C-alpha cells in the first residue's frame, strides 16, 4: 500500500505540474517562473520517494508487466529534467510538453497503480474495479484542465478552440464516474458527496452543461486562464482527497448494499461442492478457498463492466446473474448464469479485460478466486484444470442449445425447455417450481416479447401447466418430457435415475 500511496502522490503532483505548464506557456512570460519552479519542487519530492521505492523493489521479485512499466516511467523521468529546462525558457511547444506528461509519465503510472491494486489480497473485486475507474475519471478531469490550457496556448484569440475535444472528455468523465458508482461499495459512494458541496464545483458543472448543449460557454469565455486553472484545480484536489480515502479503505470490509441478504449458515460448504473442486484433495480445495472470498451481492448490483480489467474468476454459489451487452442504450441479454456456473471465464484467457457486462438479478452468493490463485492452481493441478475445462464446455454447450432453440424452435418449445430445466434443477421432487426472475427477463432471454410469453402461458395452461405470479404448477410433470432432446437428457435427473419413460423405450 505504501508504493501505491507514493504513486498516487506522484500522479497528482505531475497532473498539477502539467496543468500549470500549459498556463505558463499560455502567458508566454517568465513572471510565473517562481510558481512553475514551485510545482517542479512539489513533484520532485514525490519523484524522489518513487525512485527510492523502485530501488528498494528492484531486489524483490516483480512480474514482467511491472518491470516494463517501471522501466518506462524511469526512462520518462530522465527526459523530464531537460524538458523542464526548455519549458522554463519558453522553448517548448505546448503539444510536446502535454505529450510527455500525459502519455509518457502519467499514463504508465496509472497502469502501474492498477497493476498493484489487482494484487491486494482480501479486497472485494467491486471495490478494486471501482478504484480503477476512479483513477481514469480523475485523469479525464486533469486532461480537461490541460487541454483547455493548451487551446489557450495555441491561440490567444480563441479560447474555445478545443471545445469538441473537451465535449468528448466530459462524456468520458461521465462514463468513468457512472462506472465507478455502479461498482462502488456503500462507503466508496459516500466519499463522492463531498465533491458536490462546493459552489465552485457547481460553476464548473454549469460550464460543462453549456459546452455540451450549446457548444460554447459564456462563463468560460469571460474567464482568464489563471481563473480557469484555479477553478478546475479545486475539483482536482477534491478528487485527490477522495482517492486517498478510497485507497485507505481498500483492505477493509465492504458492504455493497444496505439490504440484508439471507444466506445459509453453511454458505462455505456450497463452495466445496462446486464442480470446479470435484474429486480434488480436500487440502487443495481448502488452500484455494483460503485465498478466495465468498461475497453476498444484492439484487441488481453490477458485478462486471465491459472493458474492466479481469481480476477474479466469479462462480455463482446461489442466485442468478445476467450477462449482457449495451447496444444503443438497449440491454441485450447473452446468458443467464445460475448456481455452480462461472461468469465470463473465457475472458481470463482470451482478453485482459471483460468483453461483456454482468449484473445480479437476484440476491447472490458468489465465490471469487483471484486470477493469480487461479493461474497457479491451473499450473499445479491437472484435476482442477480438467474440471475447469468441463465447466466451460458445459456452458458453451448450453449457449449453443439456446441459440439453436431461438433459431429453430417455436416459442412454446422454448418455454417448455426452460420449465423442464427448472424442474431438473429441483430434481423432479415437486409439481411446483418458482420462476427465478421476472417474466420480462425470461421472455428476453428466450428471444420473445413479453406479450408473446404471456400468450403462450395461456396456451400451456390447457396442457395442465398453470402459473400464479412466480409459481408454476404442473399437474403432470412428464408432459414436459416432449420438450426434451438428446443434449438435455444427459443432464436430466429423471433420465439419469432410470425413471424416464423415454429412457425405458430406448432400452
What's the tally of helices? 21
In whole angstroms, the N-to-C terminal distance is: 65 Å
Extract low-pLDDT stretches: none
**Helix/strand/pairing category:** alpha+beta
Q: How many domains, in number, for the residues? A: 4
The general outline is elongated
The strands making up the biggest β-sheet line up spatially as 1-8-3-6
Q: Tell me roughly what share of residues is in helical segments.
A: 55-70%
Largest sheet, described in full?
Answer: 4 strands, antiparallel
* Count of DSSP strands: 11
Beta-strand proportion: 5-15%
- Radius of gyration based on Cα positions: 28 Å
Mean pLDDT: 80
Characterise the protein shown here.
The protein has 21 helices and eleven strands. The chain has 507 residues and is an alpha+beta fold. It folds into four domains: 1-119; 124-255; 267-396, Jelly Rolls (Sandwich), CATH 2.60.120.10; 409-505, Orthogonal Bundle (Arc Repressor Mutant, subunit A), CATH 1.10.10.10. The strands form three sheets. It has a four-stranded antiparallel beta sheet with strand order 1-8-3-6. The protein has a four-stranded antiparallel beta sheet with strand order 2-7-4-5. Strand 4 and strand 5 (330-337) form a beta hairpin. Helix 1 (2-27) runs antiparallel to helix 10 and helix 4 (94-117) packs antiparallel against helix 5. The longest helix is centred in the N-terminal third of the chain and has 30 residues, at 125-154. The mean pLDDT is 80.
Amino acid at each position: 500500500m505504501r508504493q501505491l500511496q507514493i504513486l498516487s502522490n506522484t500522479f497528482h503532483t505531475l497532473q498539477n505540474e502539467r496543468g500549470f505548464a500549459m498556463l505558463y506557456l499560455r502567458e508566454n512570460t517568465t513572471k510565473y517562473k517562481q510558481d512553475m519552479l514551485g510545482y517542479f519542487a512539489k513533484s520532485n519530492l514525490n519523484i524522489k520517494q518513487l525512485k527510492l521505492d523502485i530501488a528498494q523493489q528492484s531486489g524483490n521479485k516483480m512480474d514482467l508487466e511491472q518491470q516494463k512499466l517501471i522501466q518506462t516511467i524511469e526512462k520518462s523521468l530522465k527526459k523530464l529534467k531537460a524538458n523542464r529546462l526548455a519549458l522554463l525558457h519558453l522553448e517548448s511547444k505546448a503539444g510536446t510538453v502535454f505529450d510527455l506528461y500525459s502519455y509518457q509519465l502519467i499514463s504508465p503510472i496509472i497502469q502501474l497503480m492498477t497493476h498493484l491494486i489487482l494484487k491486494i489480497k482480501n479486497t472485494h473485486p467491486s471495490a478494486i474495479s471501482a478504484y480503477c475507474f476512479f483513477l481514469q475519471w480523475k485523469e479525464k478531469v486533469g486532461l480537461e484542465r490541460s487541454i483547455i490550457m493548451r487551446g489557450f496556448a495555441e491561440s490567444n484569440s480563441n479560447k474555445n478552440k478545443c471545445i469538441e475535444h473537451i465535449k468528448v472528455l466530459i462524456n468520458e468523465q461521465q462514463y468513468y464516474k457512472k462506472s465507478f458508482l455502479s461498482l462502488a461499495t456503500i462507503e466508496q459512494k459516500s466519499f463522492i458527496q463531498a465533491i458536490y458541496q462546493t459552489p465552485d464545483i457547481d460553476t464548473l458543472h454549469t460550464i460543462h452543461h453549456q459546452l455540451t448543449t450549446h457548444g460554447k460557454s459564456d462563463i468560460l469565455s469571460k474567464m482568464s486562464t489563471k481563473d480557469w486553472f484555479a477553478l478546475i484545480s479545486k475539483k482536482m484536489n477534491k478528487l485527490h482527497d477522495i482517492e486517498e480515502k478510497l485507497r485507505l479503505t481498500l483492505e477493509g470490509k465492504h458492504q455493497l448494499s444496505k439490504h440484508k441478504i439471507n444466506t445459509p449458515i453453511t454458505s462455505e460448504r456450497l463452495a466445496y461442492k462446486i464442480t470446479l473442486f470435484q474429486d480434488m484433495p480436500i487440502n487443495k480445495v481448502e488452500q484455494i478457498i483460503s485465498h478466495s472470498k465468498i461475497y453476498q451481492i444484492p439484487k441488481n448490483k453490477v458485478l462486471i463492466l465491459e472493458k474492466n480489467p479481469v481480476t477474479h474468476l466469479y462462480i455463482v454459489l446461489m442466485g442468478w446473474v445476467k450477462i449482457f451487452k449495451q447496444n444503443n442504450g438497449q440491454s441485450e441479454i447473452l446468458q443467464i448464469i445460475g448456481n455452480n456456473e462461472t461468469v465470463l471465464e473465457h475472458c481470463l484467457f482470451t482478453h485482459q479485460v471483460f468483453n461483456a457486462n454482468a449484473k445480479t438479478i437476484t440476491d447472490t452468493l458468489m465465490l471469487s478466486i483471484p486470477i493469480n490463485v487461479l493461474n497457479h492452481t491451473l499450473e499445479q493441478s491437472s484435476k482442477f484444470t480438467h474440471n475447469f475445462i468441463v465447466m466451460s464446455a458445459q456452458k458453451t454447450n448450453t449457449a449453443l442449445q439456446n441459440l439453436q432453440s431461438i433459431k429453430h424452435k417455436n416459442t412454446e418449445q422454448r418455454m417448455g425447455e426452460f420449465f423442464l430445466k427448472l424442474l431438473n434443477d429441483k430434481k423432479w421432487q415437486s409439481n411446483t417450481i418458482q420462476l427465478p426472475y421476472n417474466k420480462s427477463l425470461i421472455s428476453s432471454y428466450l428471444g420473445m416479447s413479453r406479450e408473446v410469453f404471456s400468450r403462450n402461458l395461456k396456451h400451456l395452461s390447457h396442457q395442465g401447466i398453470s402459473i400464479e405470479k412466480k409459481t408454476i404448477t404442473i399437474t403432470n410433470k412428464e408432459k414436459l418430457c416432449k420438450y426434451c432432446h438428446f443434449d438435455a437428457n444427459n443432464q436430466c435427473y429423471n433420465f439419469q435415475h432410470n425413471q424416464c419413460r423415454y429412457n425405458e423405450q430406448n432400452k
